[in-house]
Every structure is written in structure tokens, then in C-alpha cells.
Write a structure and sequence with these properties.
The chain is built from 5 helices and no strands. It is an all-alpha fold. The protein has one domain. Helix 1 packs across helix 4. The longest helix has 23 residues. It is elongated, with a radius of gyration of 17 Å.
């Protein structure tokens, strides 16, 4: 999976977000993340394994440990783009409520 596909899948997931039930979007983003993991596991050095454990991941072979940084960056940029759309609308007075912000973010996620 490349960065463009990851961003597209993240955008699709974000378009279906419902604030009353965030679990489906969390699961959808997790699936994108895990699908981006290379088929062949990346061997972690002992130092990397210690780092992973320090972050609270008990299993150094955790499935997402090998997700390429560009994939995560693409997903993060898409989320950041949506947040920027909402911030701009707040700053210009186009939206005032949380419900309006969520509606705008969903609209923006589906508009690209």
C-alpha cells in the first residue's frame, strides 16, 4: 500500500465518523495501519524491542510495529487536513458548535 492509498482509506473512514460511536473509525484506521505492514516482518534490534516495550507494547512482534513511516505520515496528514478545515471555519465564524464542526469534517472528508 502506498501513501496515496493510505490517505484515501483514512479519508473514507473519517467520512463515516459518528461522534456518538467512535469505535468503528478507530477500528477502520487500525485496519488501514495494519494493512500497510510489509508482508515480511521487520526484525527489530534489541534496542528497538526495548523501545517498543517502553511504550507499553508487551509484544515486540506487535503487528503494526513494521508499518512504514510514510503510510502513517499520509494518514496523519489527512487527519491534519480535516482539522485545518475545521479550525479555519471556526476562525472565520462559519461554524460555532461541535455538531457543525463534525458535519464539516465529514463533508470535507468526502469532498476530496
Amino acid at each position: 500500500m502506498d501513501e496515496t492509498r493510505a490517505a484515501s482509506l483514512a479519508r473514507d473512514a473519517l467520512a463515516d465518523y459518528e461522534h456518538a460511536n467512535p469505535e468503528p473509525i478507530a477500528q477502520a484506521l487500525r485496519e488501514v495501519w495494519l494493512r500497510a505492514v510489509p508482508a515480511r516482518p521487520i526484525a527489530l534490534s534489541p534496542g528497538q524491542q526495548a523501545f517498543v516495550r517502553d511504550w507499553g507494547i508487551a509484544d515486540p512482534e506487535f503487528a503494526a510495529a513494521g508499518t512504514p513511516v510514510p503510510i502513517l505520515t499520509a494518514m496523519g496528514k489527512e487527519i491534519g487536513r480535516l482539522l485545518e478545515v475545521v479550525r479555519e471555519a471556526q476562525a472565520t465564524g462559519q461554524i460555532q458548535t461541535r455538531a457543525e464542526a463534525l458535519a464539516l469534517a465529514k463533508e470535507a472528508a468526502g469532498a476530496v
